[in-house]
Design a protein that fits this description.
alpha/beta, TIM Barrel, 12 helices, 10 strands, globular
Length: about 350
């Protein structure tokens, strides 16, 4: 979970027998090295390094100027201007530098969001012996990922928090919920399928296993754990999740992602047309977000969360993992016996 989790969460999940993951999209190579070294010292289990594999954004000055003026109007009271599109705050796509890092650090699993990198880079990752995962949001994407060498596929339903992993389609209207997508993907691919989206307790895990999932990937459920790197503002919003709603929005980064509804989503979206390409809007928004956050305001911050956000609890991640896994197995065994 880029921006919301670092090595501590991976270590805690791994200690409970889960697959710990480090989201690398917003980390520098040196920071990734540091985190991996710290994880390796504390967690003997396998490690998943996660990268974004979006295309490098094309700058479009007209689009950027228009988005800049919309951001400026929205943040006028803060007294800061939006940044240009080339400043810090972006998310790097998987490139030759990231690939060399994988060759150096040798994670057991490498997962991608937004498709897969170019075939030459993917072959280099495969040559390290790492298992390759990526996210599918449609049956067509799942087939494509299997055809292009994925060892397992994450079926991400529309309920999921954070960015939609969609890469063959941009049509949000045809995206499915986990309960429909998961069995449809299980039926057409021969690799294991990992269920993601709206799963936040043992009932959800047991349901996903019943629908043919080989494993589950939970995000939002861990955001309130002490080991997560969620900001105080994000945590405060999550505590109130039962009284709030989530929506899909592209106004923070240029790509659709699910988060708790807040001011920027209401003022400029939740889905804006003619927005600069991912991740340029995040770069442009950065000064407004920083100023608002320094004033204790969540108005310009992405509060990524899935539809089951109200079920996230504030307990240590290893305990949460053990409790959910044990209760899910109990439910699954009881349904087999019945
Ligand atoms: C705060 C947050 C950050 C996320 N960042 C990433 C990421 O960096 N890479 C990725 O592959 N998926 C990311 N996701 C999506 C998750 O991998 C997963 O699909 C999602 O959390 C599952 O739905 P759930 O949040 O309802 O559990 C993120 C999700 C959240 C909530």
């Amino acid at each position: 979970m880029a921006g919301s989790a670092l090595g501590d969460l991976a270590v805690a999940v791994s200690a409970a027998g889960g697959l710990g993951a480090l989201a690398c999209a917003s980390l520098s190579p040196d920071r990734i090295r540091e985190e991996v070294s710290s994880i390796r010292q504390r967690a003997p289990g396998p490690l998943n390094l996660n990268f974004f594999s979006h295309p490098t954004p094309q700058s479009d000055s007209q689009r950027e100027a228009s988005w800049r003026s919309r951001l400026a109007a929205s943040g006028a009271a803060l007294g800061v201007e939006p940044a240009g599109s080339s400043g810090p705050g972006g998310r790097a796509p998987f490139d030759a530098t990231a690939c060399a890092l994988v060759e150096e650090l040798l994670p057991e699993v490498v997962s991608f969001h937004f498709g897969l990198p170019s075939s030459d880079l993917l072959e280099r990752v495969q040559a390290t012996g790492a298992r390759i995962l990526s996210t599918a949001t449609t049956v067509a994407e799942a087939r494509w990922l299997e055809d292009h060498g994925c060892d397992a596929i994450i079926a991400q339903g529309i309920e999921a928090g954070g960015h939609r992993g969609m890469f063959l389609t941009t049509d949000l209207n045809t995206q499915s919920g986990t309960m429909a997508l998961l069995p449809a993907v299980v039926d057409v691919v021969s690799v294991p399928v990992i269920a993601a989206g709206g799963i936040a307790d043992a009932r959800g895990i047991a349901a996903a296993l019943g629908l043919g999932a080989a494993a589950v990937q939970l995000g939002t459920a861990y955001l309130r754990c002490p080991e997560a790197a969620s900001s105080p503002l994000h945590r405060a919003a999550l505590r109130e999740a039962a009284n709030r709603t989530t929506a899909l929005t592209n106004v923070f980064t240029g790509r659709p992602a699910r988060g708790l509804v807040n001011r920027l989503m209401l003022e400029l979206g939740p889905i804006a047309c003619d927005i600069p390409e991912f991740p340029l809007p995040a770069v442009m928004l950065a000064p407004l977000r920083a100023k608002a956050e320094s004033m204790g305001l969540e108005d310009f911050s992405p509060l990524w969360a899935g539809q089951a956000a109200a079920m996230a609890t504030e307990i240590p991640a290893a305990e949460l993992t053990r409790l959910m896994a044990a209760a899910a197995l109990e439910i699954s065994q009881a349904s087999v016996m019945a």
